[in-house]
Design a protein that fits this description.
The protein is mainly alpha-helical. The protein has 16 helices and no strands.
């Protein structure tokens, strides 16, 4: 038998194990800092290592299977720890197991690691513990995580090619303007005649590229860093998210994705025994837009006064009309949870279809833009050459 226990030293680890009537043959420390490095370098592993959501989903599904088969929770957690590849994840699970052994609830132990287990995960586990359906809740959590990751993967796959084309195009233009164009246009300096306006523009831009490219690069990095820092402030983030919602095309996409996330998470929470008000407070943090999040917070207050969810969402005006209509049908039929899942399916499919359509249109647009830039460079170089040929002729 082998496992991981959280302790300050090997000695304290042995004491903990002996108190639990476990007598280890050997105890050794994992994830030692290489060459005794400390300070900033000792924090590098936890800064760079990120536990994959798919790894969490796989662990959750396996734990659900063991708990459903009648394994005690502590034994189930302990038996799965050796199967985890990530040492970082192993250490977290070992701490969670120790907390449960010491008398804490599983949800309480998970809540100590918010960077790995978000609030909706913890609240669903808490509901499963209270209702005695922990295995079913864990299975639902694994399905939700896998579905979300599959959607993210399809979206990333769809936009990967346009992004790659954009990066390559920028690099090609930079190389042409900084190195190729200056060597070709150098011969025009010896000409006494007036150069065409396109050629003069090209030479000026090329000169700026050669002299100030590093300033442009530093400015771009500074602007991106300043924007990221500014967007961490709630007020600036709210204004930016509001502008996104008003942007033609983009606003519709954001609303559909938020509606899908809202519906699926709310349906899962309600299905597993979480109250409507508590579920709304959890769901508002996962929609990905502070304007919509604020609207859901207001909806929660109105629902707490006894109003229906569909009417409150209709007044908020942040979700597509179809979403509100389907939720109203679910409320009227008394089957709100199933209708919320259908809403999520509809808007996830619409969002994915819209992304595919936009990326398919983006590819020819990028090709046309690159063609225009390269064509401008070629024409600007060729025009003076044609004029020289006419003079010679």
């Amino acid at each position: 038998m082998s496992g991981i226990i959280d302790a300050d030293s090997s000695f304290s680890a042995r004491q903990k194990l002996r108190a639990a009537r476990i007598f280890p043959v050997s105890v050794y420390e994992i994830e030692k800092n290489p060459e005794g490095k400390s300070g900033f370098f000792s924090n590098l592993p936890s800064f760079f290592i990120r536990i994959s959501p798919l790894e969490i989903a796989a662990y959750t599904r396996q734990l659900s299977t063991l708990v459903g088969a009648g394994f005690p929770l502590v034994n189930a957690i302990d038996s799965l720890i050796p199967q985890i590849r990530s040492q970082h994840f192993k250490k977290k699970l070992a701490r969670i197991k120790d907390d449960v052994v010491e008398g804490n609830t599983f949800a309480g132990a998970l809540s100590q690691h918010p960077d790995t287990f978000p609030p909706f995960y913890v609240n669903m586990v808490r509901a499963g513990e209270i209702s005695g359906t922990l295995d079913i809740v864990l299975e639902r959590l694994s399905e939700m995580t896998e579905r979300q990751q599959a959607l993210k993967h399809r979206i990333r796959t769809a936009i990967a090619y346009p992004v790659l084309m954009s990066v390559i195009g920028v690099l090609v233009v930079f190389f042409l303007m900084a190195y190729i164009v200056p060597s070709i246009t150098a011969i025009f300096d010896e000409m006494d005649q007036m150069l065409p306006v396109y050629t003069r523009i090209l030479i000026s831009v090329s000169g700026l590229f050669q002299k100030f490219w590093w300033i442009a690069l530093a400015l771009a990095v500074a602007v991106v860093a300043a924007c990221r820092k500014c967007l961490k402030k709630p007020r600036a983030q709210y204004v930016f998210h509001k502008l996104l919602l008003k942007t033609p095309g983009m606003g519709e996409l954001i609303r559909k994705l938020a509606a899908a996330r809202f519906s699926r998470m709310l349906g899962s929470l309600l299905e597993n025994g979480v109250s409507m008000l508590a579920a709304l407070q959890i769901v508002k943090n996962i929609v990905g837009n502070s304007v919509i999040s604020g609207a859901i917070d207001s909806v929660s207050s109105e629902v707490g006064r006894g109003r229906s969810l569909s009417n409150c969402l209709d007044e908020a005006g942040v979700f597509p009309p179809l979403c509100i209509q389907m939720i109203k049908v679910g409320e009227d039929s008394g089957d709100l949870e199933k209708m919320l899942f259908k809403v999520a399916d509809v808007f996830e499919n619409e969002f994915e279809s819209k992304i595919m359509t936009l990326t398919s249109l983006l590819e020819p647009v990028l090709i046309v833009i690159m063609g225009m830039i390269v064509g401008f460079i070629v024409v600007s170089i060729c025009l003076p050459i044609f004029e020289m040929n006419q003079l010679i002729g």
